[in-house]
Structure formats: C-alpha cells, structure tokens
Amino acid sequence: MIRNNVFAGWSEAGICYYGADQDNCQSLPETVLVDHNAAQKPFGFVNPVDLDFHLLPNSPLIDVVYDLGTLNGNDFDNHVHPQGAGYDIGAYELTTP
C-alpha cells in the first residue's frame, strides 16, 4: 500500500520498485493499492527551500489523507491529528490560532 505521500515530479504510473535481483524500475503489482497521494505542485508548503514543510492555509494537502487512526496520533509539532475535516498529508497538520 502506498498512501498519504507527496511525489514531486511523479505520477501514480511512475511509482515503481527495485527488486534485489533487478537493475531497473519495475511496475507495481496490481495488488498494491496506491491512493490518497499528491503528485502535482504547488503543494502549499511555508518555505520548502529552507525545509519548512508546514502547510499554508490554501495547501491542496489539507484534509485529504486516508485516516490512519491511532497509527498517526500527532504531527511533528505534537498537534493532534486531524485539526480540520480530515488528516493532512505531510509531517505537519495545519493548525489555526
């Protein structure tokens, strides 16, 4: 399962894997579920150049993640998930003051 990720410059068809006995990118088996990912820029990060991946209020990554429940209790700032209608993609949940 490949879920809740951001892929810059990739598409669902471009996700692949490398096997230990293979030298190139292999297609994923049909049994691998790929959903709730974002592959189109801009992602709405505060300042990715300086590695600030907090979300801006207009980010397309807000409230779009598959609910992982207790597996994803808090973000990197220790804010509880979710803060809005759903979970946000990324390390940080958008919070409002």
Give an overview of the whole structure.
This protein is mainly β and 97 residues long. The protein has one domain (2-72). It is built from no helices and six strands. The protein has strands at 2-3, 16-17, 26-27, 34-35, 45-47, 52-55. The strands form three sheets. A two-stranded parallel sheet has the order 1-4. The chain has a two-stranded antiparallel sheet with strand order 2-3. The protein has a two-stranded antiparallel ribbon with strand order 5-6. β2 and β3 (26-27) form a beta hairpin. The model has no long low-confidence stretch (mean pLDDT 79).
Compose a concise summary of this entry.
The protein is mostly beta strands and 97 residues long. The chain is 0% helix and 15% strand.
Label this structure with key terms:
single chain, 97 residues, mainly beta, two-stranded parallel ribbon, 6 strands
Task: Give the helices and strands, then pairings.
Elements: E1 2-3, E2 16-17, E3 26-27, E4 34-35, E5 45-47, E6 52-55
Parallel strand pairs: 1-4
Antiparallel strand pairs: 2-3, 5-6
> What is the overall shape?
globular
Uncertain stretches:
none
The strand order across the widest sheet is: 1-4
Largest sheet: 2 strands, parallel
Domain unit count:
1
Count the helices. How many? Answer: 0
Beta percentage is 15-25%
Number of strands: 6
Cα separation of the termini: 34 Å
Tell me the structural class: mainly beta
Rg over alpha carbons:
15 Å
